[in-house]
Design brief:
This protein is an alpha/beta fold. Helix content is about 40%, strand content about 20%. The radius of gyration is 24 Å and the shape is elongated.
Length: about 325
């Protein structure tokens, strides 16, 4: 007669009791003890090169889901699912989740922790080398996705700018980033945090700081504070510019030498075959003083300056 149960602590349990209990351990990865169990089971070692810090606070998870405004009508693109902590929460809230993970050692863990999530697809690829426009076409018929991620801090900017510059169909990007980076994204002219990233983000999206997150919400603890920021993409940019690439070249030149006047910074960058006097003339045609510094210019002023240079160098 086949054995159908096991006895433990004086009680009768189903034969698959241990399997069920093991799966329960993995169902709530936002609890630190459950994350530890998974890491021990798979002998996982954190890779500092990949900036791995796993979230272990359920309240922060809910703040991220709430900030991203995830519903069952949404297809979510998650960057760097780790062991699947946020993926599980996204699976419960969204219609579909596509998670892109670069670390091969995490793929078998994700297969285990997400085994009960029928609406999740894990892709083992480097997000920076993935054709995201094609991915969105294949997974969501080209309709805008909502991007959600606990980003490795060392590649935050390349990932976000890649999404913007490749014009990946996305309604919003809700990400956990270093607090200082989040502050830069929403800074305005004259602030010490204002720079090229501020202007790029605000050209493509409307930033909203949703929550500050202390280091003790992660395993292992990072050395810096974090923040959740939502970037709601504009239907169209808030300013008109004839040549986006030129405008961003001007911005990079201006902030690459932010202590210099804009005339000197642009002359040193050698973007145009113009001398300082000619560059000053272009600034004047855009309504800017010759001694202005780039850090004081608004997005609209950079757009006007780019348009003026386009006309001059046509």
């Amino acid at each position: 007669m086949p054995r159908e149960s096991v006895r433990a602590a004086g009680r009768i349990f189903p034969e698959n009791y241990r399997d069920q209990k093991e799966r329960e351990i993995m169902t709530d990865l936002s609890r630190a003890e459950n994350t530890i169990e998974v890491l021990k089971k798979y002998h996982f070692q954190f890779d500092k090169k990949l900036g791995q810090n796993f979230l272990i606070d359920p309240h922060v998870l809910q703040k991220i889901i709430g900030a991203a405004d995830i519903t069952k009508d949404d297809c979510v693109l998650e960057v760097g699912p780790g062991i699947g902590t946020m993926t599980q929460a996204l699976s419960r809230a969204a219609g579909k989740v596509v998670a892109v993970e670069v670390d091969g050692s995490l793929i078998p863990i994700l297969a285990d922790t997400l085994s009960g999530c029928d609406n999740v697809k894990v892709i083992h690829q480097d997000i920076l080398k993935t054709d995201l426009n094609r991915l969105v076409q294949e997974e969501n018929a080209g309709k805008p996705v909502k991007v959600v991620a606990n980003l490795p801090y060392y590649i935050t900017t390349p990932i976000i700018m890649g999404l913007f510059e490749r014009h990946v169909p996305a309604a919003s990007i809700t990400v956990m980033v270093q607090k200082e980076v989040a502050e830069r994204m929403q800074s305005g002219p004259g602030s010490k945090n204002y720079g090229a990233l501020s202007l790029a983000v605000q050209y493509y999206a409307e930033p909203y700081l949703a929550a500050n997150v202390p280091p003790n919400c992660f395993m292992p603890r990072p050395n810096v504070a974090s923040a959740v920021i939502r970037l709601t993409l504009h239907d169209r940019p808030p300013v008109f510019v004839q040549d986006e690439a030129l405008m961003f070249a001007l911005i990079r030149a201006a902030f690459g030498q932010r202590r210099k006047t804009l005339v000197n910074a642009l002359h040193n960058a050698a973007i145009f075959p113009l001398d300082k006097e000619q560059i000053g003339d272009v600034l004047a045609s855009a309504g800017l003083r010759e001694n202005v510094r780039g850090e004081t210019l608004t997005l609209a002023q950079f757009a006007a300056l780019a348009n003026a240079f386009s006309e001059r160098c046509r």
